[in-house]
Write a structure and sequence with these properties.
six-stranded mixed sheet, globular
């Protein structure tokens, strides 16, 4: 059994005129929500051992906050930027087997769609949401549609 956390990046800044989508950074809410969500995951007893992030600035900043909390380095995967659900699941299927609890940080609609394809539970993921999926495989390479079960979706607004 493996655990896959599918995370949408925190709230980004749309106020920088002329900025390319890939280069958009987090806004003040995003900079507040990402470390708070990381602390909540730890408080809930999750122990992530691998974090893979889209190369987009907003996703990478979010992943960096998670990585700091878990004492990990971020593996940047450019293919997560604008990835379809199938591409996201293919990236997950390529994770190293020594990883038991992995997090992918990316974008919608791909992340929400990947949760649905993996688990059959179609959840819209707001910014900075994390879907925790139990995956009934011994090796990540066995991960395909329907091999997961949605355990929980955490959002920054759960405690408000």
């Amino acid at each position: 059994m493996k655990t896959l956390l599918l995370a949408r990046h925190a709230k980004s800044d749309w106020d920088v005129f002329g900025a390319a989508d890939h280069d958009r950074t987090l806004n003040s809410r995003g900079r507040r929500d990402a470390p708070a969500m990381a602390r909540r995951l730890i408080d809930d007893g999750l122990r992530v051992d691998r974090i893979v992030s889209s190369s987009a600035a907003r996703a990478r900043s979010t992943a960096d906050d998670y990585a700091a909390a878990f004492g990990l380095a971020v593996v940047e995967e450019p293919l997560l930027y604008e990835a379809s659900s199938r591409a996201i699941l293919a990236i997950a299927a390529a994770l190293p087997d020594e990883s038991e609890v992995a997090m992918l940080v990316g974008h919608n609609p791909g992340m929400s769609d990947a949760v649905g394809e993996l688990t059959g539970a179609f959840e819209g993921l707001p910014t900075c949401a994390v879907a925790e999926c139990a995956v009934d495989v011994g090796s990540w390479a066995e991960l395909i549609e329907g091999t997961g079960r949605l355990l929980r979706v955490r959002t920054p607004r759960d405690d408000e």
